[in-house]
Design a protein that fits this description.
Layout lengths: L14 H7 L10 H13 L3 H26 L1 E3 L5 E3 H31 L3 H6 L5 H29 L11 H20 L5 H17 L11 H9 L1 H14 L4 H29 L2
Antiparallel strand pairs: 1-2
Helix pairs in contact: 2-6, 3-4, 3-6, 4-6, 4-7, 4-10, 6-7, 6-11, 7-10, 7-11, 10-11
Length: 282
């Protein structure tokens, strides 16, 4: 494969060499939009039913447990001590799950195929694109999926009469923040995986988070030692953040939950960018 040059003449350099000489070196070319545009074009020909599957799963849980089990459970104590229906209690938690599912699917399985089979990122980094362009572009695509899931699920909550405060509209950007956290780490972690068997560990980690992040039951039902473990999980912070927003109750813990995801995003982007640089810009 011949080098792509910047123009005629013996003194001209290849595009990749020029990338290494710019202000940000080989890291960033300020062209994230090219990665996003390519991803959107590819999505047009993909199976939309596969994309929507991550949205329907939490909705089915909400209908089956929120309506079915909720008729037996009745009212429960929500954030701030007020009484809310069981469906209203688990709906924000399932919204967090929906945002997580959308972001994780795009940043793990899609990335796994592009990295190990299509060799897409290797080809991208042979151009002027840097690893930060690729990382942010792929993460942004995952955020679009998380935003789609969050908007659709919030609409379902509205149709079911589970939105009782104008503050609830903030659940959508909060869900995107949650998706950002998971997407930024998902791509970096996937870069270590080489086989489909290794990818099964993603579901092995996500399932306990889904079941034990106070999604269906309050944190107080668990033993103290288990509570500390649950509070270290990223999904728990998302669940608690969206529950507080859903009823318009904000405490100092709200800032802690947001801060958790901001740190998670920063570390995830650093991990993903570093891994792409190490793998393809040796």
């Amino acid at each position: 494969m011949s080098a792509i040059t910047t123009g005629p003449g013996p003194g001209n350099t290849s595009v990749t060499e020029a990338a290494r000489n710019r202000h940000f070196g080989s890291l960033y070319s300020r062209n994230v939009r090219a990665v996003v545009a390519r991803g959107l074009m590819a999505t047009k020909s993909s199976n939309w039913m596969v994309m929507l599957s991550g949205f329907f799963e939490p909705v089915l849980y909400l209908i089956s447990m929120g309506v079915g089990l909720g008729a037996i459970v009745g009212s429960v104590q929500g954030p701030g001590g007020g009484e809310i229906s069981y469906a209203a209690y688990i709906a924000p938690a399932l919204l967090a799950v929906s945002a997580m599912n959308g972001a994780v699917y795009d940043s793990t399985w899609n990335v796994f195929f592009k990295m190990n089979f299509a060799k897409l990122y290797q080809g991208m980094l042979y151009t002027s694109l840097g690893p930060l362009d690729v990382a942010m572009g792929e993460i942004f695509l995952a955020l679009l999926r998380g935003l789609m899931y969050a908007t659709g699920f919030t609409a379902v909550m509205g149709l079911m009469g589970l939105i009782t405060t104008p503050w609830a509209i903030l659940m959508i950007p909060a869900a995107v923040l949650i998706a950002f956290g998971f997407a930024s780490f998902g791509m970096g972690i996937t870069s270590y995986m080489k086989t489909f068997q290794q990818m099964d560990w993603i579901n092995f980690v996500m399932l306990p988070m889904f079941l034990f992040s106070a999604t269906f039951y309050p944190l107080s039902v668990y033993p103290q030692s288990i509570q500390w473990l649950i509070q270290a999980m990223p999904l728990w912070h998302g669940v608690e953040l969206l529950r507080q927003i859903s009823v318009g109750v904000f405490t100092p813990a709200t800032a802690v939950h947001i801060g958790y995801y901001l740190v998670m995003i920063a570390l995830g982007v650093l991990l993903t960018t570093g891994r792409l640089r190490k793998l393809f810009l040796k």
